[in-house]
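User: Glucose-methanol-choline oxidoreductase N-terminal domain-containing protein. Structure?
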Amino acid sequence: MDLSWCRFVGALVVAILLCLQGFCYSEQAPNYSFVHDSTSAPNISYYDYIIIGGGTAGCPLAATLSQNYSVLLIERGGSPYGFYTRASVDYVNNAGWDGNLVNQSYQWVEKLVAFEPPMRQWQSAVRDGLLEVGVTPYNGFTYDHIIGTKVGGTIFDRDGHRHTAADLLEYANPKGLTVLLNATVHQILFRTKGKAKPTAHGVIFSDSLGIKHRAQLNKGSKNEIILSAGALGSPQLLMLSGVGPAEHLRSHNITVLVDQPMVGQGMSDNPMNAIYIPSPLDVEVSLIQVVGITPVGSYIEAASGANFGSPAGMQSFGMFEPQTGELFTVRSDQSNPGMAKFFEAMKPADRVFRGGFILEKVLGPSSTGHLELRNKNPHDNPSVRFNYFQDPEDLRRCAEGIRIISRVIASRAFSKFTYPYLSFPALVNMTLSFPVNMLPKHNNVTSSHEQFCRDSVMTIWHYHGGNQVGKVVDNDYKVLGVDALRVIDGSTFQYSPGTNPQATVMMLGRYMGVKIANDRVKSDGSS
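Assistant: Predicted structure:
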């Protein structure tokens, strides 16, 4: 296949993946009175709780604690304007969480951000194909994580508006919460003099103009700083603050406060592999709605859409690449009979290339890596190695998932969305003809599902680990070796919950907010 075809397929998949990240739907940002740009922050301010990271965990946590305490929520980005499913019962039990409070916390989240998606032709065909090939039973629409095929929740409402964790700030007490946007935390401050352990008492952050500000905790033994900056941000900030592997910190001229070798360890990202499927029929624009939760340790999901039209007069099909702004064009590859027939079937008047993809995500995963600092600049991302498929079990699960996808594509239920002359090996080659990653490609991908998994692996942005429970934090998410500091986000997870972690991370923010508030009331009552 020629380079233009590679670019086209790559652009189409990038476009759909961007849709999965929420760039393809309008968003309605609430006009909260307590949200301000960080340039308006005073030089120094005081709060009962300082939460670093206004994302999936930080927003519900801040909304909950603001009911009775003064809370500062520091967010690195601006105002944040796929798929919603809970963790399994086993995951909840293994985490040691209170099941009743977990359910109450999920329901608190779901009132504002989760909806039942409309089931149209592509997603219905995927659902029926999964059932036809034995991914049973059919569990209907449910947030619960159950073996079989189900329709999960969506964070898009019926009007196409995307809802995020930021919507949960609607629950907040406006008098108790301050949210600062475009603020980058440089360091957590600790007191050591006269303390049994280093005690967090404040943070230094810079605004969008580069001016530094300080936020400090009010006096009181129960006041805390809470890191909710995610699997990449939270381990990075601990290290920048002197909590991490001593040798690594010294190599960056960072004063070691606590030698904690497990900070940045156990990093994981669930590998994703997708098969692109061009369709002879129009397909709806859909994100992840149906999921096949298989007993072999892989999850099967799908998305669909159409590309932008090509310029008038060009005898080719166009695709606007959203990351670079380039218009790529696709021309028929006459050396491939199947592809030549495919392009012949695409009438020039249509000017639209239809299709979507079916993907699989590996449970767990079992493979882990590590995170390290590149430098001392908090604006720069850390260096992360996830070691995809290092554990053979992950590779086995991926290969089984690809086999299930091949059977779904060949099913009667899905047949109207496939070209009969495009075999599964042809779809594999088509998918690998664009640069999904920087890895070298091999000639045996059509005969080895394992090799296809290695060659086509992509991220699904489900990063976790780096501050795991029992290694960096205790069961109450308090950082070991210091006082007045917790980490509450996906960096504490041993493995990813359910088919998508965002529901559980939002639940955890609410869950721990309730626990912290309740424990504080009990403590105050007994003193």
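The first strand starts at residue 35 and ends at 37. The longest helix spans residues 502-526.
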